[in-house]
Amino acid sequence: MVDSSPVEPTTLRVKERDGFRIAEVVGDLDLSNVDAILRALREASDGQDALVISLEHCDYSDSHGLAMLVALVRQSTARLVIAASRRTRRLFEITGVDKILEISESVDGALLTLSRRAQ
After folding, report:
1. What are phi and psi of 40, to 5 degrees?
2. Which whole-number Å values give the CA distances from 53 to 4, 5, 45, 78, 107, in the listed order?
3. Cβ neighbours for 40, distance < 8 A, ≥ 6 positions apart
């Protein structure tokens, strides 16, 4: 049986916490949305020294999502820290992307890392 329920669109929620901006991706990262998410992440990082990108609620990423994150890190002037679920961190490890991205286990961990380096 095929699941015919509609797929929820991926959203990006931006908020501030402890003096840092957090961009939370909710949904999937794939070919259908990486261009829009990349534009939104660039806008969120604009004028920032650092940005936490939370993938804790990102259910799926294909190679386009991974490539988008790598491109963003290479192009951004802000320091980017990726907060990712265990499953997503495993994907980063398997593909070698963990060598390029600065990864934390949680938003709290990412904020702690950034606040330590800001001192």
Report:
1. -65, -40
2. 30, 28, 10, 12, 8
3. 12, 14, 23
Please give the structure tokens belonging to residue 27: 């949904």
Say whether 19 sits in a helix, a strand or coil.
Answer: coil
Read off the pLDDT of residues 9-65 as tens digits, 9 standing for 90 and up. 899 999 999 999 999 999 999 999 999 999 999 999 999 999 999 999 998 999 999
Structure tokens at 69: 């994150």
What single letter denotes the amino acid at residue 73? V
Q: Which domains does the chain have, with CATH numbers?
A: 11-118 (3.30.750.24)
Other beta carbons less than 10 A from residue 29's beta carbon: 25
- CA-CA-CA-CA torsion for 32, 35, 40, 44, nearest 10 degrees? 130
CA nearest neighbour of 44 among 11, 66, 70: 11
Strand partners, 54: 24, 83
Taking the mean position of all CA atoms in its chain, how far away is CA 118? 21
Angle at 32 between CA 61 and CA 89, to 5 degrees: 10
